User: Fold this.
Amino acid sequence: MKRLFKTYLEKPELAGLILLVLLIVLFQVRSHGVFLNADNLRGILGILPEAGLVAIGVTILMISGEFDLSVGSVFALMPMTMAVLMVHGAPFPLALLAGLLVCAAIGFINGYVTIRFAIPSFITTLGMLFMARSLTVVVSGGFPPLLPIDLPNWLFTSFVGPGNMFRMSFLWFAAVALLTSLMLSRTNFGNWIKATGGFLPAAASMGIPTARVKIVCFMLCSVLSGFAGMLQVLRLGSPLPSIGEGLELQAVAAAVIGGASLTGGIGTVMGGIIGTTLIRVIDNGLVLSHVDANWFKFAIGFLTIFAVVANAWMRKRAKAIKMEA
Amino acid sequence: MGDAIISVRDLHKWYSGVHALKGVSLDFKRGEALGLVGDNGAGKSTLINILSGVHRADSGEIKVEGREVSIATPRDAMDLGIETIYQYNSMVPTMSIARNLFIGREPTRFSVLGVGILDQKKMAEESIRAIANVDLHLRSPDALVGELSGGQRQGVAIARAMHFKSKVMILDEPTNHLSVKETNKVIGFVRGLKEQGVTGVFISHNMHHVFDCCDRIVAMARGEVVLDKRVADTSIDEVHSVL
Assistant:
């Protein structure tokens, strides 16, 4: 019993999960039952995959001990690349592939420069934030291109499921969440990610190719962010060059609320998803409870700090529960 | 020297102008516990880093079991059966004992290009056995390494090296920052290596620890070997006098 209690206290996503449940109950009561009705849930679940995919990438990268501020810009650059290519006659699959390759290249540059020159990824990706945003505006030529009308929306944004509850994007999101979760917990590569972020010298001395592990995480993060940006553009129907601004900090907040450690080694994909959901729930719930929506950022900020403090406290409590070693 | 498991000849290493190793030649004999002593900057760590694949020698030759080898990465060293337990601890505190035991060498059920699904059952079973084999009593292989004491961590590191059947175990300052009781435990581990036929290389500042568990003492100073004697033929005072 004591052991079970300890095991659960040590779960990094626990604080976020408890907060999420509390907030859902609060908003449900405050909105007089509107919060959890089908229409509102459909709205939340329709937007969640976009921020959620970015948070998954950012969380995994943070577990490997690095940081990416360029995700918001990549979020805009990837669909803009696709739109421009399609305007010039490229078919959708080719444009999709090219867009994802651009993301992978940006992730590679982020990782390679960070490791090769041993500089903080905070700096590398801050630079990339500006560069990728600028590229987005440059390739768009200042005017957002018109998307062709025959896009495969059935594959990405159409509503499906019982009562048309989900968009297709949610299924992509669920699949990615499941695969990345399994990758982290069940594969040797996941073990290397945690070891690299947990204690770099030990990982390196045990023969883990830590540079390669980090670069792969950077690339995964960029590709997921770009893919998420494409989902948003397909949902909105127009590739605006300004989408995703501020997303990088929201993604970090989501990862941290979900228990990921800024210093690496600790965190779960589920935690990142819980963090994102929490942010979406607050955004939506404040409006439904007739609270001035300008309190949104205040709430996110407060919760970020609160979740980290709660997590640190719980970990300390768990450690204090002495089991015979 | 037919019974040398590792022999190095005329090893040189420069670090940006500093001549850290000046032609070191040394034989590590099979099944022997060798104590490597010397002041900071004497070249002990440089020698060990070369053997464990962290750095490369600028010139000289290394033979393992009579074969000339090139050790470019930590992985090469491990594949040759040379396992190093570092001063700073080669464990990831945020991971479980079982995960730590298999870092970089995880058993997988199937894999593509070296990446595959972990065989968690095998990891759990083998880690319990590996820990028991070094006479370490731990509650569960799922406990986080961060919760173990310094001595227990060194024990797990030694269990890991034993499990992967290393032939030479290099312990770089394993008794630093340990309590007296835990130090004795680590010294016990080093003594136990001989029974298992493993060559031990024990590096320490503390002469008493080295004399307690080694068969042979090698002292280094200014990048050279300055003393190489059986423990029975020397004394702490003599070693101090050459350093």
